[in-house]
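step: validate -> pass
step: tokenize input -> pass
step: predict -> running
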Amino acid sequence: MSLLLVLRKCSWVWLLFLILTLSLLTSSAIASQQVALVIGNSQYQHVEALQNTKYDAEGVAGKLESVGFDVIKLLDASVDQQRNAITVFRERLKQSDVGLFFYAGHGIAINGSNYMIPVDASLTTKNAADLELVKVDSVVSGFDGSKQKLLVFLDACRNNPFIERVSALSGVEVSRGLALSKKIKMSTEKGLSRLESGNQNLFVAFATQPGNFAVDGIAGETNSPFSKALIDQMDQKLEVRELMTRVRASVAEKTNYKQIPWEQNSLLEPVFLAGFPDTKKIQTLQVGTVESVNTAWGFVVAKMVGDKRPDLGDTVKIELGERTIDATVKKVKDSKMSLAPSTWNYPIDQGAKVSKEFVYN
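step: predict -> pass
step: emit ->
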């Protein structure tokens, strides 16, 4: 066998090894990623446009991308586009650890079910809800939470011009599928209603309490109060429930407590959108030994020991058996330091250890 043939075979072996390695790395990356679907509906075709929803979606999408989410962004979506995007999102969620769905636009509750309203909806026919709207349940249905966590944020309770149109459908004769004596009875509500779901590891946040309106925007701002607070907090290393508490407080304050964001959750594990908070290790080390005590002048002189030295103004502890006394470092010179104890209730003996806590990231 020629040397050239051997080299060619070796090259193919290395190439195959490289391909398999990259494939495994890619699969691992996909499995551990966080995926998001962000939808912002603004330019409605049959009612007046919403002013802030485009900026809400863009702001949320940008912030999620900055913290590592794989984001699908959809602006001014038709019913087909919105449904297709949800299907893609659900498929990607199967290969992810955390999925996040955000919707800004008009929404409505009909007979207790929540619907998002695409920009091409007219809601003038008796079967409009089935044909023209997108159920929020289409995002969460079939999700059991055994492997992934799903977070849903709905900024969809704005003052809704579609309510009168849907209300007008009540009492319309049904000609297909039901007995002729039956009528469509649609009870519309101002905002969205609760999601009835027993799924684990599901978190659903509403811009306001069920049945209430949410503010589209405040003068001088391009985002709704809910989306603005959410955008401001998304890159903080906070667990999502703590994040939502901060969002709720911000929205309540900005709207004079007329709008209180609300949530449902069945999370069994903590979820951090921007990564886990920095962990700090605290180590207590001996930094000195008491040499002399001057109660008249109110200070203790200690000889410094060890590699770690406290700085001026640091708090140290003087160890007295089972008790400790806090003391402030007032002077550091050469190998000595002067300490001002916080109390003189206990005698401070020569030889007592002086220690300090050091914090490491």
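step: describe -> DSSP finds eight helices and 16 strands in the chain.
step: cleanup -> pass
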